[in-house]
Specification:
single chain; five-stranded mixed sheet; two-stranded antiparallel sheet
Length: 675
């Protein structure tokens, strides 16, 4: 038992020291876990909490690589809030720091550089509308991350972004390839279906833009199954891009319902203004197609005001095209022509946007009799549509081939898994017989050991019982002689004699001679008789009192036999007897029982000489046996009996206090726990 405690202490010390060292230098796992918490706050829209956590970490890591790592994470907050100025400022600070340490690379700085490239890519795509440049920056980030083994989560995000950027520039085959590779990485690091939501949404949207509506329907249905598990940002993407799918299929009512649902999700969120006005743009275009002119004009005007304010030309171009179409539908051909001819919005070089503009141009020029320009628009439109169809056909073939290879790889992996499982079953079947034999041997050995431990325990119990009986027997010869001698002297002096206490003490001592436990009521009665006899020998200045709290049921409280008697004997022998009687001073012994911590506290308090060094280090038999008895009993209980002895002082009195705390529902049976 003692050796076990030493081992536990040593292990605890090692864990403590290791924990302290871990706190000094955060591990990549701890850092990534903290960044994940921040990302979750950002995704849930609680950017203020994310800022607070980042600020705390930045204060703790000033002028270090980790400071700029947290500064990189801060840019994710600025992106979520579409704060372009702050993104630019932070990116410039990080870039300046990286240039200063260009020749002194380490994993943290490579990670900061990867984050900087990824952020630059996002800025190019989302703020400047240049996804082609975003691809270049993001590819650099991916290559850096491939060299950092601990950054699979970060690499997965970068790969997902790259697939999105390829989708923006119309490279749908590269986009699908990127998403599928990201899916493979997600599978390899144990991501569940909920974690793959952005990838599933991305693939669904790519097939929509490719015009492969059969495949897009499959992936949209898969995404819909995860709709209850999506955060609000992903729900917005689902409804907005699913609306695009319906729009391209000219299912305008369904498209409008999706756009309307997307707008409702982000309407009251100031950090999602871009998403909200994008939804209004799409919904306005649907209303144009449905002939709802007033609703379309109101929505397009609101969206146009916002995107002019933030100077985002791609959507301004889209809105202008929708406004031109609206004027055409309402018969305002001259106004539509004026808007078209006088447009100053640059072409964003987005194929889908260009096709919409060319269709509107062709229609307007035909109606106003400018057939040459209508013909040129038609030629450009045909070339672009043919090019897009050819590209889509090629990309569909590439993606189907890619999916076939992916499905084949998955099938081979599944077969390998099934074969491995089959081999395992056979191996387990062969191992089962061997294990059965080993278990039988171990079982027999365990039974033998249990019996041996039980016999040792019984022997230990008998030794304790004999020692307890020896303590009780110590009371008999010398104590009885003193008691009888006291009564003889009393008779000679003409005082009354009383042998009742001695008789009761001996009788109760015999009754408890072979038991380990007794009730507090029985123990106090035994001590009463003992102190009655000793008190008469001590003299008239000895005062014995008991204080039993009202909520203590002495008949229901159990305790080790002789525990209180040993405390009382020690108090008399070592505390009160050595004191010389003096006038006006009483030698007091108090036994007090109260409730404490779901147990009963019994105290024996004297105002004697106090606890001396010799008493602290003494090896009295009674104390040793009581400690051994309690230790034996505690081994069989979760709530332990505790006891102790110490000096006390109150007002102008002092002395010694012995105490024992008895838990409720304590098991006093000495048995082996394994039995």
């Amino acid at each position: 038992m003692k050796n076990n405690r030493v081992y536990i202490w040593l292990i605890s010390l090692i864990v403590l020291v290791t924990g302290i060292e871990a706190c000094k230098a955060p591990t990549p796992q701890n850092l990534n876990s903290e960044i994940k918490r921040i990302e979750d706050s950002i995704k849930s829209g609680n950017t203020e909490a994310a800022k607070h956590m980042i600020a705390q970490h930045m204060n703790e890591t000033k002028d270090s690589d980790l400071y700029y790592r947290w500064l990189s994470v801060q840019n994710r907050v600025w992106y979520a809030e579409m704060n372009a100025d702050s993104m630019t400022s932070v990116s410039n600070r990080i870039h300046h720091y990286l240039l200063q340490h260009q020749g002194k690379q380490n994993p943290t700085r490579r990670l900061i550089l990867a984050e900087w490239n990824k952020t630059k890519a996002v800025f190019m795509s989302a703020i400047l509308g240049r996804p082609d440049s975003a691809i270049i920056y993001n590819e650099k980030a991916i290559k850096i991350l491939e060299t950092l083994k601990e950054e699979n989560e970060f690499r997965l995000t970068a790969m997902t972004n790259q697939a999105f950027f390829y989708r923006q520039v119309g490279r749908y085959d590269k986009s699908v390839e990127g998403y599928i590779k990201a899916l493979e990485l997600a599978d390899s690091i144990g991501k569940g279906e909920e974690d793959k939501i952005p990838l599933i949404l991305g693939i669904s949207t790519v097939y929509t833009y490719m015009g492969d509506y059969e495949r897009s329907e499959h992936w949209w249905n898969r995404a819909q199954q995860q709709l209850p598990n999506m955060i609000k940002a992903d729900q917005f993407i689902y409804y907005n891009d699913r609306g695009n799918d319906y729009y391209f299929q000219q299912k305008y009512e369904k498209a409008g319902n999706c756009y309307n649902q997307a707008a409702k999700l982000v309407k009251d969120d100031e950090t999602k203004d871009w998403d909200y006005y994008t939804s209004l743009t799409n919904l306005g275009e649907v209303y144009v197609c449905l002939g709802k002119g007033d609703s379309a004009r109101a929505l397009l005007h609101k969206a146009d005001s916002f995107f002019h304010k933030v100077n985002f030309t791609p959507l301004i171009y889209y809105i202008e095209t929708s406004a031109i179409k609206l004027e055409m539908h309402e018969g305002q051909t001259a106004k539509a022509l004026s808007m078209l001819v006088n447009s100053t919005v640059p072409d964003p070089h987005i194929p889908a946007a260009k096709v919409q503009r060319l269709k509107a141009t062709k229609q307007i020029m035909s109606e106003v009799g400018r057939y040459k320009e209508a013909y040129e628009a038609d030629q450009q439109l045909n070339l672009m549509v043919d090019s897009m169809q050819a590209a889509n056909t090629s990309m569909q073939f590439s993606t189907k081939l890619l999916e076939y290879q992916h499905d084949k790889q998955v099938a081979e992996q599944q077969r390998a898994i099934e074969k491995a499982q089959s081999d395992k079953i056979i191996a387990w079947a062969l191992l089962a017989v061997m294990l059965l034999v080993v278990i039988l041997i171990i079982g027999q050995f365990h039974i033998y050991r249990r019996r041996q431990r039980f016999n040792n325990l019984k022997t230990h119990q008998k030794i304790i019982m004999m020692r307890m009986e020896n303590i009780r027997n110590r009371i008999s010869p010398h104590f009885i002689y003193n008691a009888l001698n006291h009564e003889v002297l009393a008779q000679m002096e003409g005082r009354d004699i009383d042998l009742n206490s001695l008789t009761q003490l001996l009788r109760r001592g015999l009754e408890q001679s072979d038991i380990l436990q007794t009730t507090l009521d029985e123990e106090l009665a035994f001590v009463d008789y003992y102190l009655d006899i000793e008190g008469r020998q001590m003299g008239p200045d000895f005062v014995y009192t008991k204080e039993i709290a009202k909520d203590v049921n002495t008949q229901a409280v159990n305790l080790p036999s002789m525990a209180i008697q040993i405390f009382a004997e020690n108090a008399l022998k070592h505390g009160l007897r050595p004191m010389k009687p003096r006038e006006g001073h009483l030698r007091k012994l108090l036994i007090r029982a109260t409730r404490k911590d779901n147990g009963t506290l019994v105290e024996v308090i004297d105002n004697g000489t106090g606890l001396q060094i010799s008493r602290k280090t003494g090896t009295q038999l009674g104390g040793r046996v009581m400690r051994q008895t309690i230790q034996l009993l505690n081994d069989n209980n979760d709530n332990k009996i505790s006891f102790g002895i110490n000096n006390w002082q109150q007002d102008d009195e002092s002395g010694c206090r012995s105490w024992i705390l008895l838990p409720d529902n304590y098991n006093y049976q000495i048995t082996n726990k394994d039995e």
